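TEACHING EXERCISE
Course module: macromolecular assemblies
Task: Read the component lines below, then compare them to the predicted structure of the full complex.
Student: A.B.
Group: 4
Components provided:
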Amino acid sequence: MKRSGYCNEIGTHLIGEQVTVCGWVSSRRDHGGVIFIDLRDRSGLVQVVFNPERQPEVHRQAHGLRNEYVLQVSGLVSRRPPETENPKLATGAIEILVDRLELLNTAQQLPFQLDEEGVGEATRLQYRFLDLRRTEMQRNLQFRHRVMQTVRRTLDESGFLEIETPMLTRSTPEGARDYLVPSRVNPGQFYALPQSPQLFKQLLMIAGYDRYFQIARCFRDEDLRADRQPEFTQIDLEISFVGAEEVMALAESVIAAVFRDALGQGLSLPIARLTYEEAMDRYGLDAPDLRNPLQLIDLTETLRETGFKVFAQAAAMTGSRGERGMIKVLRLPGGAQLTRKQIDEYTEFVGIYGAKGLAWIKLNGPWQEDGWQSPIVKFFSEAEKAAIVAATGAEVGDILFFGADRASIVNESLGRLRVKLGKDLDLLRGAPFSFVWVTEFPLLDWDNESRRHVAVHHPFTAPMVEDRAQLDAPEMEGRFLDRVRSQAYDLVLNGTEIGGGSIRIHDPKLQERMLALLGIEKEEAEEKFGFLLKALDYGAPPHGGLAFGLDRLVAILLGVESIRDVIAFPKTQKAGCPLTQAPSFVDPLQLRELYLRSTHIPK
RNA sequence: GGGGGUGUAGUUCAGUCGGUUAGAACGCCGGCCUGUCAAGCCGGAGGUCGCGGGUUCGAGCCCCGUCGCUCCCGCCA
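Instructor-supplied answer key:
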C-alpha cells in the first residue's frame, strides 16, 4: 500500500517514472473515451488520466468513479500534450497515465460541494470532517501548524522549557466565569478548567525554571464573539530576572520568526510603541490600528466656554470618581460628501457605545463665508470656529464628527467610529500588517457595579516603579487609583490585541497591598490563592511574561474573519458543537455519582 | 440579559401587491461523447418554504410565539 508521494509533489522531474498516489476524487471529466480525474490529498491536486487504448480494463473501472471516492492509482508520469498544460495547477505540466486503479472506498453525495463559496456555517460545522477537506481549511490548519512549530523551535533555541500545567485546577477569583468540573471523589467540590496558566507559570519561576513556555488551552465561560471561543489557545511564556524590555524583545523575536517561517516575510524590528495614554488620546481605543490615518483631537479646553450647552456641560463634567467629561473631534478628510443617511447611520453606530448623539460639521466652504453646514454651527463664536480649524487642520471638503460626554464614552464611540470609517471608506494605508506595542496600562480601574477597584490586567501585575509610592500612601485608598500605571504591555496587530503581559509582583508585601486595594480580604486571598502568596515568601525572583492569542494571531495573518476558521473543531455562538452535539444531557447515574442534580426545568 | 441580520431543493440563492402547478444555478441520477481541467450536449429525479399557532376564501409572503445560525452591546484580556 505504498505511495510514492503526495499529489502535489508529482512534477516534471518525475516524467517517465512509475508513481503511486492516494487521495480523493476532486472532480472528474468523463469524455466517454478518455477520463480525467483530479486526485486530491492534503498537498493539492494532480490530474490522472484513464485512456481506453492504454488500459481498457482500468478505463472501464474508472467510469464508475464519483466525487470523493478514495483511490490509489499507479501509473506513468507524463508530460501533458502541447496546449493542454494547466498553469493554474502546480502539477499542471504533467499528468499520470493510470495503469492500475484501486478503489479504496466509495462516498455518498456530499451535503455540500467542497468548491462552493459561502456554505452556511451550521452545515459546515455539522460536517466538519468534510469542511476540513476544503483547500482553504487545509491551508489554514497547515499554516497554524507551521506557526506553532516555529514558536516551539524559536523558544527552544532561546532556552525555554516547555512545561505543562494542570487542566483540572481550582477556581480563582477575578476574571471570567470558570468552567467547572465536579469531583467524584470529593463530593460537592469542583475543579475549574484554567482561564490561563498564570499562577502556575509564576510558580515555575519561583521554582527556578527561569524560562517557561507552553502552547496552552484556556477556558472561559463567557459569551462568544467572532474572535472569542470558550476554549482557545495561548502561546504562554514567562521569564525570570527580566524587565518589560526583555520580555517585549523576546516576544518580537518570536513574531519575527513566525513572519519569516510561516509567511516568508521579513519584519522590521523593533515594533513601534505607544503608551496607553497616547493610544487613548489619539485613537480612543487601547488597540489602535495604525494603518488608519484618522486621529482624534481633544477640544475640551478649546470649547470649554462654548455657548453650545451640550459641549459646555460635557467639558464641565466631573464623575463621581474623577472621570472627566471630554470633547473630541474626528476629522474625516473629504467627508463633506457623506449623505445625510450615512451620517444618520454613523449616529446610530456611536449610539451602540453609549454616545447620545453625533454632532457634525460639513465644511462645504470657509466658515467666514457661511460655508459650514451643521445643526450646531450657530452656537460657535468666530474665535471658536477659528480654533477648531487650527486644532484639526480641517479643510474645505472635510467633515468633523464631535463627541462630548464622559471621557470613556467619547473615546470608545469616536474610536470605534474611526475604525468603522476606515473600513467603510477603505482608508487603511501602508503595510498589510501593522504592529504596535501599547504600554503603561493603568494598573486599576473602578468598577461601578461592585463599588471597588479591579485589576485592569490581573491582580499580579506590578505597578510602574515611579508610581509605586501612590499605592503605598494610605490616604490614596479608594481614590483616583486609576492613575497608577502598571508594567503591562499589549501587542496589537491591525487593531486587534494579539498578546499581552506584564512584569509580575514578586514582593509579597506589595502583593498583599495590591490585594487589599482590590478589596480582597486577607482570608479570601489566603483561601483562593494562598499557595501563590506563600510561594512569594520563599525566594521569588523578579519575573514577567506574556501570552499570545494563537487563534487570533493565525486568523489575522491569514486574513480570515473568524477564529473559527483556524480551529479544527470550533463551537458555535451558543458554545455548542454541531458535529458532536456537545454539550448534551447525561445519564442521571452519572450525575448521582458526582453528587449533582440539575435544577434546570425544560420548557 | 439586550439589539440587528438570517432560515425556501443536497448547496448557494430568486420568489412581485397575499392568488393557479414554488423557480434558477451548481450538485445528483441516466444517456451520448477520446484532451478536459467551471468539460460539453440531451433527458430526469429532487421541496415539512426552520418549527408551532393565528388572520384570511386563499399564506413562502401578514401577525404572535419558538428554535437554529450569525454580527454586535453587556460580559470577557
